[in-house]
Design brief:
- The model is unreliable at about 190-200 (pLDDT under 50).
- The chain has one domain: Nucleotidyltransferase, domain 5, CATH 3.30.420.
- The chain has seven helices and five strands; from the N terminus they run ββαβααββαααα.
- It is globular.
- Helix 2 (about 75-80) crosses helix 3.
- It is an alpha/beta fold.
- Strand 1 (about 10-20) and strand 2 form a beta hairpin.
Length: about 200
């Protein structure tokens, strides 16, 4: 069972993102403030959960959280500022939408930058330690997966229903055969040689 949050003196929001390593689609970020007594034995780092459990937890988190928000940063913006800064921007945008406003942000990872006047703490593998970060990881992951599943209906050649935009063999072969879509991150793979970073 995860600890609900990092500390209990300030109103804390857990923040995380999903989709940093993808070749296509936005990066999604979420911020979540949980009640101090929130507990659920299934809640964990979203990557360690089944899709069914993530969907169940998403409904629970969205119903019981004190506040939550999810933001998407588009591929064009990722290409403009790079994926790391896009992740920071998405988490900042999500945190800024929370009502009540958080007094502390706890960030999954070892780096963060923001223009928000809110103190923050970076926690490596925080989504496996604190429930509010894990909750943010679940919301970011499920909202992003849902987005990619909708895009798959319009662009069925790339297998996004299965790979969600990650650089699987299926996805890389489809890029070679069918080219790029408006939803691909050009800075990741607009040069042919860049695909060699992910050898078949």
């Amino acid at each position: 069972m995860l600890e609900t949050q990092y500390q209990y003196d300030l109103r804390e929001a857990g923040c995380d993102e999903a989709g940093r390593g993808c070749l296509a689609g936005p990066v999604f970020a979420a911020a979540v403030i949980l009640p101090p007594d929130f507990r659920d034995p299934l809640l964990n780092d979203s990557k360690q959960m089944t899709a069914r459990n993530r969907d169940r937890l998403r409904a629970l988190i969205e119903r019981e959280a004190v506040a939550w928000a999810v933001e998407a940063v588009a591929p064009e913006r990722i290409d403009e500022i790079n994926i790391l800064n896009a992740s920071f921007e998405g988490m900042s945008l999500a945190a800024a939408r929370l009502d009540p406003a958080p007094e502390l942000l706890v960030i999954d990872g070892n780096r963060f930058r923001t223009e928000l006047a809110i103190p923050y703490r970076c926690i490596v593998k925080g989504d496996g330690k604190y429930a509010d970060i894990a909750a943010a990881s679940v919301l970011a992951k499920t909202h992003r997966d849902e987005w990619m599943e909708r895009l798959d209906a319009k662009f069925p050649h790339y297998g996004w229903l299965r790979n969600k935009g990650y650089p699987t063999r299926e996805h890389r072969l489809a890029i070679r055969r069918h080219g790029l879509t408006p939803h691909h991150r050009l800075s990741f793979n607009h040069e042919k040689d860049q695909l060699e970073l992910f050898p078949l």
